[in-house]
Structure to design on (1107 residues):
């Protein structure tokens, strides 16, 4: 590998002609010192440029001489510097937000042509400022719900944060928070995401043509970067909303050198309802709440070294008590992540980030009465080490390479139960250990002025290792025929995954381009769900000798065009995705079947495909802005043990999916936002027949083929109004007696949102029942649709100082 | 802050009260009737086999529906491992049942059975076994602390140290109602409380949790399927009552029947719930139809709730 890299870099570097020097540095916000991600560095008159990475670092190698360099970033004032290249130059730039620029012509958000010039297909970066003005469910700003408004991204259901990208399952999305994998990104059974918007700096979604520095998932990458914390001064942000309040504190530990940010959020449904439950009530003590804490420390050790320590801890806790029935249960679940990152500059052209990550997700269900108790638990724990190198050999190449290793520990289910003094035999807790590793290399190469390619290759590997107990079951009796024990670190099964990635862009002119992408991905972990919706009880399960890795291949092509000086951008993208080795629980599986057994004995395996067309038009600038996204798609699945191996529509197969997101700045302090969504109804199975069981005196349902029918279409409109208080107040200068404007210490805003404006009764689920008495020979059968959220107004007060 | 909390609480109450349901219609294609076999082979008892046709799910039920579901004139043969016993169709009160009083057809412990059904051009085959029965160690009634005269039946049971045993629990109150209930149950005085042994939800289990153990377990009172008795709603629902005489029918059964009963009972309570996935039951009938052939090894105990 080392030899290969050496030869490769020698070749790539040899494209240099004449005397060349490197311009590098960091781009950050002048007020907070926050690194700006994706800021553009453009060499005027030469058609060359680059952009900052997630740490705000950039590097570009140019021939000696004078160059005019323009630094720009969305919503910030451009800076143009003339730089004389006679040696390697380090230039750190601090950009000012456009609204802070007084007595100057305020420059609108940068007129970027990145939409057409980048080789990356299906990538969307979302600005947190914009997300915060989009109407929010119950007033809680939610990045996961916002990305569902993008073409190719389907919602998991009413009010749900789960999402499906281009026909992939919810487990096929890699969700990263400061490079730590978040396995369950939702609170309250999916209605809210775990990400506190106040602590987030950047949200980036890649839904197609995944570059080779990402892996381990088939469908998408949602890369969320937390704020660094203000390096200049102390600030607090917060909000009081309908169901939760939040507070963020940030500031310098040492000015311009080290900073922190600490953010917390908690719901108060339990606090609000508890006073209304009488002490004598049988249900006293029941309740639900969630909270999350996000923290980050940053230290600029030197011009070449930076350290970042960030963490997340969140919990949902659901308690139920019934004193009359002497019964109670508690259901806590949540994620914890910690990541330590070290940025180091080996040279002006070689940037390396070394990361150590700890991720933990666990779910518990414990309860019982005075005589009987039970406890169910499952979880995942990952330790991850990786190094990502970025090498900028010359202005034609941007090379990334690195390695990644993760030690997984899965506990699919751990059960304990007792009756009085008798402990039931719930078997050994089955833990599954796995080594996952990858090496990758990619080169973003400007072959000509018009043709740019991103060539990448990732070699991944997964090993299922001991200790492990394999149960061989007799299917007709359910008994264990034999057991095989594997020792510590014993290799049980090894998989290798060659993952070529390719994307290319051909620029017709400054405003239009076509792009192609092919990506081949391996995914070594799977999510199995017994229920119809995503729940915290869903099991993450790794590849074993029974469960093969999921394999996905995506082909995509798109035409991208910007209009009217890049004020509008538009695209049409086509994709075809092929999926192999998907898993589902076999029909009539129950959680208790995992006891004294392996979960994979309950699974069935299959394949899938999805294809579609995505249309996107966006107005990027001006008082009136927003986008319209429309997707036509078809997503099918095939499992050997379901419907005799016939193809059936996936649950989230949506033929039509439309999102309209609009915002209008009525004045600089008043903004209105509107969202309209329309989607073909979810596919469902229906009861087609029934028979009467005389032995059980019950009506038994015979179901249709899997997902053979559709619910009603889903559509709704949301509105929001955000009013910012005046940031400055008039004051009298005591010395001169003149009226001056002073910035207020406390700046606040009100957000009013209405979810489901026209009170559409959208289907959440459907159940089937009858009226009358079948025993008496009088019964009418019907289908009943349950709608979850009617028109929902909400109000949130936000503040910062 | 206080006003925000007040607004929040008011809105929360509104939300909880506004989520709603409505009846909807689906345009379902006409589906073919399916031949359904439902039978029981029980130790010491003659076979009881019902043959019916399925109906469209949304077809209404009227007074003629029940009689019309039965399949007549089928050729039903029970094989007990040594001989084929033809079963006769008997119709009583509109209910058609295939059975035989031939001693060879009476359920025997430890016997494997095969049932063959020929009806028109359709053929069904079902297999089951009557396992050896295991009685309970003891039974007792425990009144619930909150309700003076109501309680559950507790049992002590010893599972043999051979993994793979499956069980199903039934109970029948054989005493009579001593008073009437509000309409439509205003004439139950003097009637036997349960007309047959009833299984509560969760009535069947295998022994993977308690193989070889002696332990106590508790069961609530079962209901007679969709028939709602006078004490199946309100405070008495699910409880036995002090003074009840209860015959507990504890049965051993097979793994496929345990899987079927578990799925059937789960379907009865989940009823399209989002917390489960709809699916067809794991029938043990092969051929041109669906159905279940139960096999039970039975032991009886009687308890007076005191």
């Amino acid at each position: 590998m080392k030899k290969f890299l050496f030869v490769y870099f020698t070749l790539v570097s040899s494209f240099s002609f004449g005397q060349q020097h490197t311009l590098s540095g960091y781009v950050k916000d002048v007020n907070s010192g926050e690194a700006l991600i994706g800021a553009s560095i453009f060499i005027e008159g030469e058609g060359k440029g680059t952009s900052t990475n997630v740490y705000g670092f950039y590097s570009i190698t140019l021939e000696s001489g004078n160059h005019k360099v323009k630094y720009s970033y969305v919503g910030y004032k451009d800076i143009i510097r003339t730089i004389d290249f006679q040696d390697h130059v380090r230039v750190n730039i601090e950009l000012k937000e456009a609204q802070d620029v007084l007595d100057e012509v305020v420059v609108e958000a940068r007129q970027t042509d990145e939409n057409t010039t980048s080789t990356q297909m299906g990538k969307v970066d979302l600005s947190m400022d914009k997300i915060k003005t989009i109407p929010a469910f119950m007033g809680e700003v939610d990045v996961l719900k916002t990305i569902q408004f993008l073409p190719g991204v389907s919602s998991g259901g009413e009010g749900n944060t789960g999402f499906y990208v281009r026909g992939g399952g919810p487990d096929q999305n890699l969700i990263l928070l400061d490079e730590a994998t978040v396995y369950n990104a939702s609170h309250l059974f999916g209605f809210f995401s775990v990400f506190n918007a106040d602590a987030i700096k950047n949200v980036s979604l890649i839904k197609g043509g995944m570059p080779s520095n990402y892996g381990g998932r088939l469908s998408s990458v949602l890369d969320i970067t937390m704020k660094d914390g203000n390096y200049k001064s102390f600030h607090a942000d917060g909000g009081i909303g309908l169901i939760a309040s939040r507070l963020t504190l940030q500031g310098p530990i040492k000015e311009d050198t080290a900073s922190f940010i600490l953010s917390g959020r908690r719901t108060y449904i339990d606090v609000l309802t508890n006073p209304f439950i009488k002490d004598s009530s049988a249900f006293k003590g029941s309740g639900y709440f969630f909270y999350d804490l996000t923290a980050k420390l940053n230290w600029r050790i030197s011009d070449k070294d930076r350290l970042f320590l960030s963490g997340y801890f969140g919990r949902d806790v659901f308690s139920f008590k019934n004193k009359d029935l002497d019964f109670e249960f508690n259901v806590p679940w949540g994620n914890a992540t910690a990541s330590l990152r070290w940025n180091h500059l080996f040279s002006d052209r070689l940037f390396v980030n070394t990361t150590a990550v700890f991720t933990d997700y666990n779910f518990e269900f414990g309860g019982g009465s005075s005589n009987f108790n039970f406890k169910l638990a499952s979880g995942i724990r990952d330790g991850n080490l990786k190094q990502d190198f970025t090498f900028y050999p010359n202005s034609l190449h941007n090379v990334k390479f690195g390695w990644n290793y993760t030690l997984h520990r899965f506990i699919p289910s751990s059960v304990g139960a007792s009756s009085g003094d008798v402990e039931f035999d719930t078997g050994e807790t089955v833990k599954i250990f796995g080594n996952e590793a990858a090496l990758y290399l990619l080169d973003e190469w400007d072959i000509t002025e018009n043709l740019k390619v991103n060539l990448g290759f990732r070699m991944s590997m997964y090993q299922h290792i001991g200790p492990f107990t394999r149960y061989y079951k007799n299917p007709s009796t359910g008994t264990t025929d034999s057991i095989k024990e594997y020792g510590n670190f014993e290799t049980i099964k090894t998989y290798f995954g060659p993952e070529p990635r390719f994307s290319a862009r051909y620029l017709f002119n400054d405003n239009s381009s076509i792009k192609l992408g092919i990506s081949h991905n391996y995914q070594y972990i799977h999510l199995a769900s017994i229920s119809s919706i995503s729940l915290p009880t869903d099991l993450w399960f790794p590849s074993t000798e029974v469960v093969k890795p999921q394999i996905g291949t995506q082909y995509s092509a798109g035409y991208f065009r910007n209009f009217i000086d890049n004020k509008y951008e538009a695209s049409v993208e086509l994709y075809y995705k092929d999926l192999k080795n998907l898993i589902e629980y076999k029909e009539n599986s129950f959680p208790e079947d995992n006891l004294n057994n392996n979960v994979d004995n309950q699974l069935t395996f299959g394949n899938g495909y999805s294809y579609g067309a995505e249309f996107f038009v966006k107005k990027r600038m001006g008082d009136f802005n927003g986008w319209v996204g429309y997707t036509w798609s078809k997503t099918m699945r095939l499992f050997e043990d379901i419907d005799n191996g016939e193809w059936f529509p996936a649950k989230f197969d949506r033929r039509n999916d439309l999102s309209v997101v609009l915002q209008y700045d009525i004045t600089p302090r008043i903004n209105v936002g509107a969202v309209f969504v329309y989607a073909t109804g979810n596919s469902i199975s229906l009861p087609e027949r029934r028979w009467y069981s005389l032995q059980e005196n019950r009506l038994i349902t015979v179901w249709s083929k899997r997902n053979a029918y559709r619910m009603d279409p889903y559509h709704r409109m949301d509105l929001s109004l955000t009013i910012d208080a005046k940031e400055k107040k008039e004051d009298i200068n005591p010395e001169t007696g003149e009226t001056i404007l002073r910035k207020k210490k406390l700046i606040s805003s009100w957000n009013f949102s209405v979810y489901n404006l026209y009170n559409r009764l959208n289907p959440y689920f459907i159940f089937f029942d009858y009226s009358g008495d079948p025993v008496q020979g009088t019964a009418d059968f019907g289908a009943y649709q349950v709608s979850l959220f009617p028109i929902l107004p909400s109000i949130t007060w936000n503040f910062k100082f | 802050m206080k006003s925000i909390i007040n607004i929040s609480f008011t809105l929360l109450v509104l939300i909880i009260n506004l989520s709603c349901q409505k009846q909807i219609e689906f345009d379902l294609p006409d589906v073919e009737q399916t031949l359904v076999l439902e039978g029981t082979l029980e130790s010491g008892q003659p076979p009881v086999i019902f043959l019916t046709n399925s109906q469209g799910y949304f077809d209404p039920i009227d007074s003629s529906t029940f009689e019309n579901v039965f399949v007549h004139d089928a050729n039903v043969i029970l094989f007990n491992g040594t001989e084929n016993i033809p079963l006769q169709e008997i119709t009583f009160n509109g209910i058609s049942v295939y059975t035989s009083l031939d001693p060879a057809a009476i359920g025997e412990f430890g016997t494997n059975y095969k049932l063959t059904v020929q009806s028109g051009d359709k053929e069904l085959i079902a297999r089951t076994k009557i396992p050896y029965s295991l009685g309970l160690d003891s039974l007792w009634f425990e009144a619930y602390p909150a309700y003076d005269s109501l309680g559950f039946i507790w049992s002590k049971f010893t599972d043999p140290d051979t993994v793979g045993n499956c069980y199903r629990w039934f109970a029948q109150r054989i005493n009579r109602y001593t008073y009437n209930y509000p309409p439509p149950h205003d004439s139950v005085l003097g009637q036997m409380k349960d007309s047959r042994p009833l299984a509560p939800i969760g009535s069947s289990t295998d022994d993977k949790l308690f193989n070889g153990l002696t332990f106590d377990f508790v069961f609530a009172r079962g209901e007679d399927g969709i028939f709602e008795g006078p004490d199946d709603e309100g405070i008495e629902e699910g409880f036995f009552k002090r003074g009840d005489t209860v015959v507990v029918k504890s049965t051993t059964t097979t793994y496929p029947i345990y899987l079927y009963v578990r799925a059937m009972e789960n379907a009865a309570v989940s009823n399209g719930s989002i917390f489960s996935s709809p699916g067809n039951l794991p029938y043990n009938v092969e051929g041109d139809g669906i159905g279940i052939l139960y096999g039970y090894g039975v032991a009886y105990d009687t308890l007076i709730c005191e």
